[in-house]
Amino acid sequence: MSYFVTTEQANQVLSKLLETYDVYAPKRFPKQGRFSDTDIIRYAKVEKVDDIVYDEKSDFPAKEVINPIQQAIFYFTEDEFRASKGHTRPILLFARPCDINAQKVQARIFMDNGGYQDLYYARMRELINFVLMECPGGDDTCFCCSMGTNKTDNYVMAVRFGEDGLKVEVKDDKFAPYFEGAAADDFTPKFVEENQTKVTVPEIPDKDVLLALKNHPMWREFDKRCVSCGACTIACSTCTCFTTRDIVYGQNPEVGERHRIAASCQIDGFSDIAGGFGYRKTAGDRMRYKVLHKFHDYKVRFGEDMCVGCGRCTSRCPAYIPITATVGKMAAAAEEIKKEQGK
Fold first, then answer.
1. Could you tell me the residue ranges of all domains in the chain?
2. How many of the other CB atoms lie within 10 Å of CB of 281?
3. Would you state the pLDDT for residue 113?
4. Reading across the β-sheet that carries 22-29, which strands appear in turn?
5. 272 DSSP 8-state letter
6. pLDDT of amino acid 137
7. Cβ atoms of residues 160 and 166 within 8 Å
């Protein structure tokens, strides 16, 4: 069933929903951007419709609600430990198709990875109800159509924002009572069919091509360009890497709490192991690892590419390295290698 509600009616519906649900959506934070006098858009709790930024892509992904950059995972003493308390209220999460599809990737890693289930992700994921925000077409960094993540049916409601109100499709009947008395509508969400930016993911047929691609000189370009800041992975919709840190109370090192903190494969030292050995010492090696993982390794294991084409890594990169151009160079290198190897 679909409805049309004015902004005033939508705020009334939202107020009723807030009695049961926490509502998260892209929200503007003025003067908090990375450049002087710029804003930042990130996910946060909202209390009225005007708080929701629907016509601009958020700087950071929806994953921050489910898999925060930092969270306490357990508390410990000399004798025992206990897991941190999880979120208890159900959540309505307003998101575009790419961010909803990104959670399929995160769920595979945290909940369907060799039989292991991550407690902290799983307990949050169970509370999430996605509200699909109809995408206005993205920007020149988006390439969701190339990755097949421009559409989704994983939502309880869908919304289209307009100047005079909202069109709402209610897919889950439990939300229909909130719209009692609202005008009926024939709204069905539309999805982006073409992006300004396109990417072709290379086919890597065997290990010989893969090994040659890993050693291709194209990766050396990034030794000079990439500054290894990790901004791309923190802004990524699907990255899951983290480290842990203990915070001790007072003078006793055996009483405190352990935090899980987002980490990045692009930062020097991420791959260091005991004895001081590191697998990826240069920025180019780290870039190679990230790109091949997103566009080859994950697909070999799970059948789909890891990247959803949101383009946030390109937008956040201080060295202006577009992921689409990098994948394009990798595709050209792969074709060159296959030709040399007669494949």
1. 2-67+87-185
2. 13
3. 79
4. 40-45, 22-29, 91-95, 128-133, 157-162, 165-170, 2-5, 183-185
5. B
6. 83
7. yes
Length of the chain: 343
Distance CA 15, CA 6 (A): 14
Backbone angles phi, psi at 79, to 5 degrees: -110, -20
N-term to C-term CA, the chain: 53
CB 5 within 8 A of CB 165: yes
Residue 245 CB neighbour total at 10 angstroms: 10
Token pair, residue 191, equals 């999805």
Show Cβ contacts of residue 287 under 8 Å, excluding neighbours closer than 6 positions: 219, 222, 226, 266, 326
Q: Which long-range contacts (CB under 8 A, 24 or more apart) does 73-78 make?
A: 73/120, 73/244, 73/258, 73/259, 73/260, 74/257, 74/258, 75/256, 75/257, 75/258, 76/254, 76/255, 76/256, 76/257, 76/258, 77/254, 77/255, 78/252, 78/254, 78/255
Structure letter (DSSP) for residue 178: G
Decide if 130 contacts 93 (C-beta within 8 A): yes
Question: What is the sign of the dihedral through the CA atoms of 163, 169, 172 and 173?
Answer: positive
Note the pLDDT tens digit of each residue in 162-210: 988 999 999 999 999 999 999 999 999 999 999 999 999 999 999 999 9
Residue of 114, 97, 79, 93 whose CA lies nearest to 24: 93
Q: What are phi and psi of 114, to 5 degrees?
A: 70, 25
Cβ contact 271:279 at 8 Å: yes
Compute, in degrees rounded to 10, the torsion defined by CA atoms 273, 278, 279, 285: 140
